Structure formats: structure tokens, C-alpha cells
Hints:
The structure is a single chain. The chain is mainly alpha-helical and 807 residues long. Among the domains are: 37-217, P-loop containing nucleotide triphosphate hydrolases (Rossmann fold); 221-398, Orthogonal Bundle (Arc Repressor Mutant, subunit A), CATH 1.10.10; 399-453; 709-807, no CATH class. The chain contains 45 helices and 7 strands. The longest helix is centred in the middle third of the chain and has 21 residues, at 282-302. The two termini are 47 Å apart.
Amino acid sequence: MMENSEMKTGNWFVDELNYYQAANSDNESLRKNFVIRKAEFEIIVDDLRRKNDYDPLQHELVLGRRGSGKSTLLKRIQIEIEEDPELAKKYVAVNLAEEQAGIYRLSDLWFEVWQELKNQLNTATALAEFSTFANNQDYTRYLFLEIHKVLTAAHKKAVVLLDNLDRILENLDDDGHLLRELLLNYNDLQLIGGSTRMDEHFWQYDKPFYDFFRKHHLASLQFEEIDLLLNHWSDAMKLPELQGYALKNQGKIEAIRILTDGLPRTLQFFIQILLQESDLYGFDYIRRVMDKATPLYQERLNSLTAPQRKIVLEMAFLWEACSTKQLVDKCRIESKLISSFVKQLTGFGIVETISTNNKNHLYRLSERFFNMWLIITQGNPEQKRKALWLTIFLESWYDANELKSLAYAYKQKLKQGLVSYDKASVLTKGFSQSRYITTDDRDELIDLTTQLEQKIINNLHGLPRRFKEIFEELKELIGKEDYELALQKIEEIENEEDGIKFHWKGYVYNELHMAAEAEEYYLKAIKKGHTNALNNLGILYNGRKKSLQAEECYLKAIEKGNTNALNNLANLYKNQDKVLQAEAYYLKAIEKGNKNALFNLALLYKNQNKILQAEEYYLKAVEKGDTGALFNLGNLYSDQNKAQQAEAYYLKAIAKGDTNALNNLANLYYEEGKQKSKALRYITEYHQSSKNKNSSETEIIVRIWNGDFENVEVKINQLFTDYGYEELDELIENLLYQEQKHLVLSLFESEQHGKALKDRYVLLYYATLLLTNKVDNNLELRIPPEVMATVEAIIEKVKEKNAFYAR
């Protein structure tokens, strides 16, 4: 739980950062919070410092998408000029961020600059009236000369900071050549502009500002920058939950970074959602981030004409860079009209052109966050599912451990009854089929979810019988989870004095999720002095999130000597993140001989990354005959890359009949690239006894590793038939690692499976095409830029693994 922010609502986090008006923040706050874009800042400011009086000034252009930090960077440069004694002596900063709406001629720009200089330099000079000049150009030259006089008298140069410089230059028309002339002929005014796009004024050779500015591209934030930013916000805003968050949740951060364009503004949306709704899962975060951007993007969409809007939507749904022909087919609009509308959209900065080696250029939406917003908010169910699958792939690619921890946290919530059945029915399916959890965890998740669906059935009363006979039958019924008959059996018990009847009725009602009835009968049993009922009532309260009542019951049970309550109280504290109290009560339970506490304390230490302590208590649990601890020790050593120790304990677990250890040992051998034949023997044995999707995949890969290609395509097709197309990324990746790129390509291109696989694993498809040199139709240009780095990372890893398994 993120307790610091539980009571805060609305846009409190974003408001506190004041990101929309970052340029208007007070100087101290902005300087303190300026932790990214430092490289661009240092380049520009260092250049200003080095300039002598007669050196030519370097005009600068900062390029970046909306929310990338352009305005903040310009403001930070202004602050440095004003507050650094060396710079303040040489320059005066003029930041016209708020006056640009009225600038549509060069004379307007010079007038605003002159006004600001007059105020800053306390100049009393008055300007001649506009009406006294023959034309606007004469007035424009006059204004610039007045600026020159003011600066000369003050022995300073002006640094003019202009946000959205491209919009200003669009309005200048023929004044553009005059602006260039004045800036070249006079050496006392430097422009530093921000722009969302590389307008034709900057790149077209016949335009006045061709190659005139030094360009600084504000790229998407990299993971290291996000880690730095989150840690800074954690310290500055006293939010300890953000400290180290990126490193602990790399997969989630990378998915957010890639799919939301890696913008600081978008990241702020994400963090606010994280702080307010920390129980959301992967794709839910993406959707909520998109919701925050809806007002801005809906206005942009509504400002377009109907055919422009149609083209933008279809271009977004295609996602890859597309040709005019593709747009004609999708939009059902004539080619000439498509070309005209695309040109208009390019002029608006919404669409960008990608040049090819022929006349058939490609087009895509320039702002990739806008593209993903359109898919998620405007797309049909199939298009949204593709975005969901892409999110899932990115998360699992960048951080398998993140999914492990999510699955563990989700299981704890299921156990505590904190997840509704409708949500659990979806999440359990995804987690239970994940390759990152054990088969025990898989079955436990399914069982916990199934219990949520159980129907409560009215029970019949029966005749009483002898207690010993009834109790044996009752235990058998409870063991079979036949709770309807168990309740009938309890009614045969006549004696209520010792509270046993009430205790077991409470227990059965609790298993039926009839909490009120369970509580009623546990309380009756407690009044009769039944100690176990105290412990079980604590379990009931814990499941209903009544932590204080649960704690009270456990403590009373402990007073009466119930050692299970010691272990349960420790579990309660662990789930509340009260690790010191949990540790203390696990140790007390261990002192009283509770074997379960040994295993649980080892888990607590492992979750705290206290590996040595976890190892110690797993070993103690093993000494007490806990065979599950053997398997967990194997996992612990495997996580530490201690293959020899992991192997030893998996073998011990196998000897004790733990079939899961067969699977894990086979995987260990595969990951280590050794013991091929043993890996095949173990996975075959496991697959025969516990056939499931993961074992089917592993057996296919290990057989290929052993050089056995018999019926491999038939087996893969059967896998698709039995288990569908979800969670296949590891299979595809390992096929590529085993140099089966042509087999993988055939799967992606098959008539039966191709579409489903491409939809879900499009990045692996791109990588496979590049690995097999199928780069026709401008493949590398078509791949969306936000995922190109991931595709390249996949290819690099495939080549690395090819060499590893070829040893």
C-alpha cells in the first residue's frame, strides 16, 4: 500500500509538479527539479560562456514533442543567464513564451523584444509611431536598430527564447529573409527556439533558415533517466514508494516508456495513477494514462475535417508506417484526395513523411503517444487487443521477475478475498498460464478463483450420531471439500458444551464464504472455551480485511498456547509489510516447534532479498522434513546462478517425489547449456506425469536442442490447438535461439496461425523478418520507431544465444 497518497484525489501529483506551467514555476523550484535534459542545457549554456564579444552567436533550435520538456529547458536557460554573474554581465534573457499569440510579423517580434529590454535595462527611450513609416519593413528595420542601440549602450547581448518557433516563422512570410539578414549583420541578438517539428523553414534549402540553427533533439527518456527522475521525485515530495521503483518494476516502466513515447509529461500521469491506484495491472496503466490525455487529443481530433479524421484514425490503426495505396484501401478515398489530405496533415505536424528509395513514400503519425491513444480509445475490440498483447510482450520481455512478483501479490489478494470473481476470472487465466510461475502456483491460483465462484447451497438437518464416528466422517467430507454434506454431518453432533460443534460449523461456513455465519459460530465456540476457534476467527477477520480484529484474535489464541496463531499473526504482519513484527512472531512460532513458520520465515527473508537468512531457514525446514523447502532451495540457488547447488537440491526434491523439480532441473540444464540428454529425460518424465502448456513448450525446445526434429511442426500445431496462442513468446524466442528462424517465419506466415501470432507477437515477427533478411517493402522504415530499439535488442539476444547453444 502507498499510504502517503491514499487520501489524495484528483490531479494532485501533476498539480504539485505544475508540469503544464513548468515555465512559470519559481526559479528555485525549477532549478531544483531540473534533473533531465541537462546535456542539452550544458551544451547551450557552455557555448554562451565561451563566447567573446566579437565571436558570432550560435542560434539554437530545440526540437521535441509536446510534453518533452522544451519550455522547461528554455526557462532553465533564462534562469542561468539571470542568476550566473558571468552570464548576467554579458547577456540579458528575453523569454517571450506568453506573447507569441500576437506575433504574426517580424515587427511584432522586435516590438515585444524591445519592450522587454526597456523594462529590464531601465531604458527611457520612446519609439516613433508606426504611422510615420512608409511601410512595415522600414518600421521593422527601425525597431531592430533601436534594440541594437539599447544593447550597445548596456554593453550586453540579448538571448531571445522563443517557444514554438516554427509557428512564429510560419507567420513571417517574406519577413523571414529580413530576419536572417539582420541576425547575420548584427552580433548582439541570439535566438534559442523550441519547436515540436522540423518545419520546412529549417530543412528546405531554398528557405531562409536552411542550416541556420544548431539542432538539439529532445529524445524519449531512457530508462536510466526515468529511474533518476522517480528517485528525485521521491526525495523532493517525500514519496518513499517511488524510491527505486523503476529498478524493481523495469518491465512495467519500459512498457509505459515505449508505448507512451517516453515523455516527462506522460510519466507524470503514470506516477499519479500508480500512487492512487497501486493495484492496477500492466495494460490498465496504459489505459488510464491515455484517459488523462483524452481532453487534449479529443480536441485535436475534433478540429480536423471528417476525411482528415478518417485518415488519421486509419493511419493509427495500421500502426506501421504506411503507403498512400494502403490508405486508399483503408479509407476508401481517391488517391489524389488522400495525397492532398496527407499533405495538409503533414503541414499541421500530425503526420510525418518517411522517404524511401523510390517515389512511393511512407507516412505515419508523428506523435507516437497520439497514435497509441487513438488505438486504445478509438479502436475496435481487435485493435485494442493488439495493444494489450503488445503491452504484455514488452513487460515480459523486459522483466520476467516483475510478473513473478505480480503473480505472488495477486495470489495473496486472492487468499485474502480482495479480488472480485469477474476480475479474478480474467487475471487468473493470464497468470496461471505464465511461464514465470510454478505449476503449484498455477493450480493454487485456479483453486482460489474457483472458490470465489462456488454457490452457497441450503443445507439440511440430520439426526445426531456418536461424535467419534461423526467426526471421522466429517474430516473425510471436509477433505473432499463436500461442504454441503459436512454441514449436515455437523448437525448430528449433540454435545455443544465444549464448542467443537460451533467451531466446525464456523470452519465449514468460512469455507463456503458465508462470513457472517462463520463469525457467529466461531464466537459461540470461543465462549465455550474453544482455543482453535480464536485462531480461525482471526483467519476469517484477516480475509475480510478486519486486520485489528484478526490481530486481537491471534494474540488471545497465543495467550492460550496456540502455536498456529503465532505463525498466522506473523503472516498478518508480513502482508501489512510489518516485516520486523512478522519476523519476531515467526521466530516465536519456530521456538514453539511450528514447522510451517520455518518455511514462511525463509519466504519472508527471500522477499526482502536476505538470501543468506532465507537459505538458513529453508535448510532448517529441510531438516524438519519439509520437502517443499528442497524445491524452494533449488529455486533460491537457481536465482543466484548457483547452478551446482540448485541442481543438488532439485535432485533431492525429485528423490522425494516432487515432480515440479523435474521441470525446473530440465530448465536449469537448458539455461546452463549443459546435460542435454538429462534435460530431455527429465522434461519427458515431467511431461508424461504433468502435461501442461509449459512442459509441452519445454519438451519441444529441449528436443530440438538435442537434435531431435521429428514431428516438430506437428507438435507445435498441437500445442496451438490445445492451449491457444497466449503466452507463446518464450517458445518463439527459444526457437530463434535454437536457430529455427525459418521455422518461426513459416509459423508467422502460415494460413492457419499467422494472423493470431502476428497480432500477439508483432515485435518477434519483425525480428524474424530481419533475421531471415526478408526486408522487402521498406520493412525497416515501416517498423514503428517506438519499438525499433526493442526489435534490435531481440535480434542481438538471438545472435548471442545462437553462439551460446552452438558451443
